[in-house]
């Protein structure tokens, strides 16, 4: 379609074509299944301030408070889970090798020692696998039992529950077996109580609350024992 405008002088065009206005790239809402594989769909779960993350990290060190879900209700995040798990992978891989070195040199100062690169693969598989699969299993189990459950909040809870193993790894370098077991059991108990007590406050109306708490507590303790046996033998 053509439009003939009034005469606007010598520089005026005789006619002009009516065209669609030029815009930026067209934004089309992605389909549900495409949004699942879209990285930008998850950016909102990493949009968290440093002060908020520090507050949640400190909350994980007080396992008896039981108010963690109240603190993350407005903005549960996955930043803590990813950051803590990645930190633990490198901490266990590096300090675990240091611990084996100290033990070997203590028993035989002339013994040969080699850095075990497999610690990195093992730590990544165990830590990331545990932090992702265990909350997922609790989510589907509670949904099956008819209880309220939020997968994002569960991932957030379990992610921050692992933070205590970061500072606890440093004294595990002490080459005293009894002291190592005391440290890892204390850290595991604190982490287990943090998960179990917060689940109790979140699932107040659940009839099978005791079973859920016992399962969460037991799995955290199993993880802590595994950390001691494999990375700080």
Question: Which properties best describe this structure?
Answer:
233 residues, mainly alpha, two-stranded antiparallel ribbon
Descriptive report:
The structure is a single chain. This protein is mainly α and 233 residues long. It has a domain at 78-231. Helices cover 61% and strands 2% of the residues. The chain has helices at 32-36, 50-60, 68-72, 79-107, 118-144, 151-161, 165-169, 177-202, 209-231, and strands at residues 2-3, 16-17. The protein has a two-stranded antiparallel ribbon. The longest helix is centred in the middle third of the chain and has 29 residues, at 79-107. The relative contact order is 0.12. The model is unreliable at 12-33 (pLDDT under 50).
The computed structural class is mainly alpha
Q: SSE order, as H and E?
A: EEHHHHHHHHH
Rg calc? 27 Å
**Rough shape?**
elongated
The biggest beta sheet is recorded as: 2 strands, antiparallel
Outline the low-pLDDT stretches. Answer: 12-33
Number of strands: 2
Distance between the termini: 82 Å
What is the arithmetic mean of pLDDT? Answer: 80
Main sheet: which strands, in order across?
1-2
Q: Oligomeric state of the chains?
A: single chain
Figure out the total of helices. Answer: 9
Report the helical percentage: 55-70%
Task: Please state roughly what percent of the residues sit in beta strands, choosing from under 5%, 5-15%, 15-25%, 25-35%, 35-45% or over 45%.
Answer: under 5%
Subcellular location: Golgi apparatus membrane; Membrane
Pfam family, one: Yip1
Transmembrane segments: 78-102, 122-142, 154-172, 178-197, 209-231
Family: Belongs to the YIP1 family.
